[in-house]
Specification:
It is a single chain. This protein is an alpha/beta fold and about 375 residues long. It folds into two domains: about 140 residues, NAD(P)-binding Rossmann-like Domain (Rossmann fold, 3-Layer(aba) Sandwich); about 180 residues, Dihydrodipicolinate Reductase, domain 2. It is built from twelve helices and 14 strands. Strand 3, helix 4 and strand 4 form a beta-alpha-beta unit. The longest helix is centred in the C-terminal third of the chain and has 19 residues. The protein is globular and about 65 Å long. About 50% of the residues are buried. The mean pLDDT is about 95.
Length: about 375
């Protein structure tokens, strides 16, 4: 077992990149990870300069991921990175992950994992063959009260599941010119076959399957592009079918004017229902027809061991988005230290999300009512 900090490299997340800074903060929170190298943009000089701003050795602010690979492999084993974080636009996720896995490095990658399910399956084969670790950053599974929700479902608190409703509404793309971060998300060459649904719809799909334990079997989708000139969807509604007659709905929009990060999960069973809201993530609401409504609070009596394990502070000291990222990083570090996969999203979830995206896009374009995932 390694008795030192885990050395991290990063591809993406340069100046002005929102999610890159989130990753860097989250990786530091557990005190076990040290960022030592990276590619911080497509301009080699800016990458080098930004590396200096992050107090890295300038020579380890590489021009591109291929030169980063070559440079790290030339270093002694005790200096090179242990894993790479891939937080680029979508079209780089597969080639960068593949290259680092082939070179013997563990990988943590932003979602979606690839541009197609075929690419995701190639990565899965490579990961299984290599024995290396792969983490897919679906950070919402790192919230303590999502763990509590998952436990409630597993314990039968809700009874037989009947319906799952998820809303994920944002307003940031409501205007045609939404800034640098918006440009690539609506470009098929960089984002892939979907815009809004790849960006936030996959979070909804993953959280549904993670919390309920049910796989989405069929979809019926209505995807829309409201802002003129965009080539990909900026809004979508998807009906879902699961086994045992369960049903679901995902409403995802990035043009919901005025909304911030309104991510809501509701699960209904024949005994009770639960509700979790990302904008008030410390609470989990449990409702039934024959008892008062319960509001469980993170860090307070009534929550279980799984939620407690992901809590960093006592109740009343709010935890949120970055801490959820950090919890995923902590689980990945634990896996690297033990050499065994841990409780974090992996390549299986990556394959599932790509199959989901392909099914809803095909359904929205086609004439059939339901499409098999």
């Amino acid at each position: 077992m390694m008795k030192r900090k885990i050395r991290m490299g990063m591809v993406g997340g340069g100046p002005g990149a929102f999610i890159g800074e989130v990753h860097r903060i989250a990786a530091r929170m557990g005190g076990q990870i040290e960022l030592v190298a990276g590619v911080f943009g497509t301009d080699p000089e800016k990458s080098r300069t930004f590396a200096e701003e992050l107090f890295l050795c300038p020579e380890r602010g590489y021009a591109d991921y291929k030169s980063m690979l070559a440079g790290e492999l030339q270093l002694p084993a005790e200096e090179r990175i242990d894993f790479v974080c891939v937080c680029t636009p979508n079209h780089f996720h597969f080639p960068v992950s593949k290259a680092f896995l082939e070179a013997g490095f563990h990988v943590l990658c932003e979602k979606p994992v690839a541009m197609s399910s075929a690419e995701a399956l190639l990565l899965q084969e490579l990961i299984e063959r290599s024995g290396l670790l792969f983490c897919l950053m679906h950070n919402y599974s790192g919230y303590p009260m999502i763990q509590q929700a998952r436990q409630a479902v597993a314990d039968g608190v809700l009874g037989k599941l009947r319906k799952v409703n998820v809303e994920y509404s944002l307003g940031w793309l409501a205007a045609p010119n939404a800034g640098k971060q918006a440009v690539w998300r609506v470009d098929p060459k960089q984002a892939g076959i979907s815009g809004c649904m790849a960006d936030i719809g996959t979070h909804a799909q993953h959280l549904i399957e993670y919390v309920t334990g049910m796989s989405i079997l069929e979809v019926s989708a209505d995807l829309a592009t409201f802002v003129e000139g965009r080539a990909l969807d900026d809004d979508g509604s998807v009906m879902l079918r699961f086994a045992d007659n369960a049903r679901g709905v995902i409403f995802a929009s990035e043009v919901a004017t005025g909304e911030e990060n309104n991510f809501i999960l509701k699960i209904y069973g024949d005994k009770a229902a639960l509700e979790w809201r990302q904008q008030s993530p410390e609470e989990l609401i449990i409702r039934s027809n024959d008892a008062p409504m319960q509001i469980l609070r993170r860090g307070w009596p009534g929550t279980g061991e799984a939620a407690a394990k992901l809590s960093r502070l006592p109740a009343g000291h709010p935890e949120g988005f970055i801490e959820a990222f950090a919890n995923i990083y902590d689980a990945f570090v634990e896996a690297m230290r033990s050499g065994k996969p841990g409780d974090y999203p992996g390549i299986e979830e990556g394959v599932a999300e790509m199959r989901f995206l392909e099914a809803i896009v095909a359904n929205a374009k086609g004439s059939e009512k339901w499409t098999r995932v």
